[in-house]
């Protein structure tokens, strides 16, 4: 369909054909503005948001992580084996003349108090002896009363001349002898009662009965031996056997963990005595570890112990910092010129993935933590200090 010029439709078609290029130019210009803005943001915005570049290292010098270990208290663990025992074992026997045991009142494993009766010995004969001595006291008391009365009558008659002074002196002597006999009788009764009291076998102190070696009907005496064994206060100990070298490191008060055979638990203890001598045959000494009472700690049983001792102060390093070769153990340190230098060291106790350095370091050096195997002495490096190691 065509439109002739000069008509209304022809004029409209002419205007539409002239507007199309102008609209196309506007779209092109708008697109160019958007692209220009995006390019400017990409260039200038990235430069502003980019993080600051790391400080450049020296040309060819590898980065290495270093640490200044300082000096820390180093704990050393000493392992030992030994036997369990009562810390203060008390043997109990017959203190008196003895006789036939009439009753046994305790069993092993029982707690007793100080002075508690453990067993009794028949005292029928001794009781009769005590009764006889008590009667003699009555006789002596009567003699003393009579002698005192006669003396008073004589003293009232001597002034009248009926009795001589010599008779009065004899009556005074009679009165004093009666008083002495009374004292002797009383002393004899006290002695017999003390003897009878010793027929009761008593606990010398509070504690735990470990063994019982007597039964009713048994004849006992002072030569019979031990009838009961007690642990004073129930306190136990482990007698740990240590070599000469380990014994030198153990001190009174050192903490220890004791594990009896057959038990997976560890019992906390403390070294309370270190042997002052070494057995010349075994070249070992004994450290005595005090333990609180527990039924699992049976005297005579076998146990192992880990004793924690203080080995002094020394630098500690992670195991990754250590290297070794045919010349021994060593680490790399970084000197003031930022050069790696080999330093031979002697190792101390190892604990918690760290190794104590016995000799070779003061703790103030910058020690390479890792990658020491790829370094050479005198090589230039860029140290990066690691904090909190």
From TrEMBL:
<dbReference type="InterPro" id="IPR058647">
    <property type="entry name" value="BSH_CzcB-like"/>
</dbReference>
<dbReference type="Pfam" id="PF25973">
    <property type="entry name" value="BSH_CzcB"/>
</dbReference>
<dbReference type="InterPro" id="IPR006143">
    <property type="entry name" value="RND_pump_MFP"/>
</dbReference>
<protein>
    <submittedName>
        <fullName>Efflux RND transporter periplasmic adaptor subunit</fullName>
    </submittedName>
</protein>
<keyword id="KW-1133">Transmembrane helix</keyword>
<keyword id="KW-0472">Membrane</keyword>
<dbReference type="Pfam" id="PF25954">
    <property type="entry name" value="Beta-barrel_RND_2"/>
</dbReference>
<feature type="domain" description="CzcB-like barrel-sandwich hybrid">
    <location>
        <begin position="98"/>
        <end position="226"/>
    </location>
</feature>
<dbReference type="Pfam" id="PF25989">
    <property type="entry name" value="YknX_C"/>
</dbReference>
<feature type="domain" description="CusB-like beta-barrel">
    <location>
        <begin position="239"/>
        <end position="309"/>
    </location>
</feature>
<feature type="transmembrane region" description="Helical">
    <location>
        <begin position="27"/>
        <end position="44"/>
    </location>
</feature>
<keyword id="KW-0812">Transmembrane</keyword>
<dbReference type="InterPro" id="IPR058792">
    <property type="entry name" value="Beta-barrel_RND_2"/>
</dbReference>
<feature type="domain" description="YknX-like C-terminal permuted SH3-like">
    <location>
        <begin position="316"/>
        <end position="382"/>
    </location>
</feature>
<comment type="similarity">
    <text>Belongs to the membrane fusion protein (MFP) (TC 8.A.1) family.</text>
</comment>
<dbReference type="InterPro" id="IPR058637">
    <property type="entry name" value="YknX-like_C"/>
</dbReference>
């Amino acid at each position: 369909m065509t439109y002739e010029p000069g008509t209304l439709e022809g004029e409209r078609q002419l205007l539409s054909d002239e507007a199309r290029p102008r609209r196309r130019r506007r779209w092109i210009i708008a697109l160019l503005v958007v692209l220009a803005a995006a390019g400017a943001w990409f260039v200038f915005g990235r430069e502003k948001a980019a993080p600051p570049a790391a400080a450049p290292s020296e040309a060819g010098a590898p980065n290495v992580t270093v640490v200044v270990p300082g000096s820390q208290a180093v704990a050393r663990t000493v392992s030992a084996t030994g036997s369990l025992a009562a810390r203060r074992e008390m043997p109990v026997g017959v203190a008196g003349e003895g006789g036939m045991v009439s009753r046994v009142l305790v069993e092993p494993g029982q707690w007793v108090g100080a002075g508690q009766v453990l067993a009794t010995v028949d005292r029928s004969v001794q009781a009769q002896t005590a009764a006889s001595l008590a009667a003699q006291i009555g006789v002596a008391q009567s003699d003393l009363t009579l002698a005192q009365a006669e003396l008073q009558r004589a003293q009232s008659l001597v002034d009248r001349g009926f009795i001589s002074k010599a008779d009065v002196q004899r009556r005074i002597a009679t009165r004093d002898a009666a008083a002495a006999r009374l004292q002797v009788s009383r002393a004899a009764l006290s002695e017999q009662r003390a003897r009878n009291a010793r027929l009761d076998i008593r606990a010398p102190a509070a504690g735990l009965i470990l063994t019982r070696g007597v039964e009713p009907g048994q004849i006992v005496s002072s030569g019979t031996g031990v009838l009961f064994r007690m642990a004073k206060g129930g306190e136990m100990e482990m007698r740990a056997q240590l070599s000469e070298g380990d014994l030198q490191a153990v001190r009174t008060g050192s903490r220890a963990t004791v594990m009896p055979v057959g038990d997976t638990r560890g019992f906390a203890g403390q070294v309370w005595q270190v042997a002052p001598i070494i057995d010349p045959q075994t070249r070992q000494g004994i450290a005595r570890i005090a333990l609180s009472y527990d039924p699992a700690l049976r005297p005579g049983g076998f146990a192992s112990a880990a004793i924690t001792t203080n080995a002094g102060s020394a630098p500690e390093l992670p195991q990754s910092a250590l290297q070794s070769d045919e010349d021994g153990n060593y680490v790399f340190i970084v000197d003031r010129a930022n050069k790696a230098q080999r330093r031979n060291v002697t190792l101390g106790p190892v604990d918690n993935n760290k190794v104590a350095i016995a000799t070779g370091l003061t703790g103030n050096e910058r020690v390479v933590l890792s990658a020491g195997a790829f370094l050479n002495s005198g090589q230039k490096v860029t140290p990066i200090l690691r904090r909190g190691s």
